[in-house]
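User: I'm writing a short methods note and want a consistent example. For Putative NAD(P)H nitroreductase, I'll paste the sequence; you return only the structure tokens, no commentary, since I'll be parsing the reply automatically.
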Amino acid sequence: MIESIINRVSCGRLESPAPSKEHLELMFKAALRAPDHKGQKPWEYIVFEGEKALSRFGDYLLQASLKDNPNLDEDKQEKIKNKPHRAPMVVVAVAKAKNNPKVPHVEEILSAGAGVQNLILGAYDLGYGAYWRTGSLAFNDHMKQPLGLDFEDTIVGFIYLGTPSVELKSKPVPEVDDFVRWG
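Assistant:
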């Protein structure tokens, strides 16, 4: 597994097949092992797979965009609506606000982020490609209602999953000494 962690790369060019149900379950099991202060389990993952579900998610993205900018031209609207179709599966990762006075929400967000990292490492290890996207729509409060989220919840990203349609190019591994110092 350490080799997968060191060598993992993002892949923005994804095609079918998406992870199988069995593989997706393994990936979520990995995600649910993220560090979690006070055992709050502040995670929720919403899966959109298939033409109909991806189109519905695209509608959510467009409606949220139009609430912030009602004057979007038709080309921009079409581009936003088609974003989910970049992959055969999109997972919305959410940090649920548990409102525990001993666990600040930022810790729930960090836990959800660690869960996403485990999810994409699992995808890579199983031979799938993954791309963790955020952008303004991940932080748009108008996305919460159609996804059934509470106002205090935080979307930590949209995880695009599928089979790489291009050869994955390895990246240089950063030098540890450039980022680590001993106190």
